Hints:
Elements: H1 4-18, H2 27-34, H3 38-44, H4 51-71, H5 76-88, H6 92-105, H7 110-122, H8 126-139, H9 144-156, H10 160-172, H11 174-180, H12 187-200, H13 204-217, H14 222-234, H15 238-251, H16 254-264
Amino acid sequence: MFDKRNRWIINVVMAIAAIAFMGVLIAPFLGAFQQTGSQTASTAASPTVSPAAQQAELETQAKGYQLVLQREPNNQTALRGLLEIRIRQGDIKGAIEPLQKLAELNPDEADYTILLAQAKQRLGDREGAAQAYRDILKTQPGNIGALQGFVDLMLEQQRPEAAVGLLQDTLRGANDANKVKPGSVDVASVQLLLGRVYAEQQKFSEAIAIYDQAIDSNPQDFRPVLGKAIVLQRQGKNDDAAPLFTQAVSLAPAQYKDQINQLATGATPTPAATTAPTNMSPATPPASP
């Protein structure tokens, strides 16, 4: 099994791709569910304010939003405000109620349900998280955020074959889904997820095969090229990996080139800027500001 560093490097393939699929709006919330200590960093940014005073101020703001919601329970501005406060407080349990309401009020916007699933997973409610992902995938079978979240949940539960089955089923149904709603399933991105699962299970030949399929179908997409390079590198096949890293650099948007070069040397890459627009083409850099 990969050690933590190697597993993290494999995940870089999906982390780089994620910006193209997850809305910028929810990025701060997603980070909070992964790091319960986020409020500490916020305190450090304001050294003149004591933690107790900051928490008191946050609670005062929360009570203000709660008063609004008593009068207007569907006020989404207040719900989002309360959600942000609870996350800044590190109160994931307290975030559940506004998230649940926002998900109910916005059934066509999967982001809130994805956040709800992640919150439930953080709290140990794995079945609740799984059901939230299933609810999304019933109507949006190609939602990459829900697929990635559900796959991560299955891997956490030591159910890699279930994760593989979910992704294979998604790929098998992609043509029909895209006939009904063009573009609803991004086949290349699902293949990337599947390749990642195979790689984490050290099923390297299967990972390389799925990356090769993605490369053949999307020759200008740097992501499967990078995925294949990383898998070969992890197998010690550096001579085979080197030209693929070079190819990935040539295809990648500018903000990812340094990261890929670092990966090619076996170093842990520094985070790229997260200014890429939603639905960015994987081979096209965003316009200059």
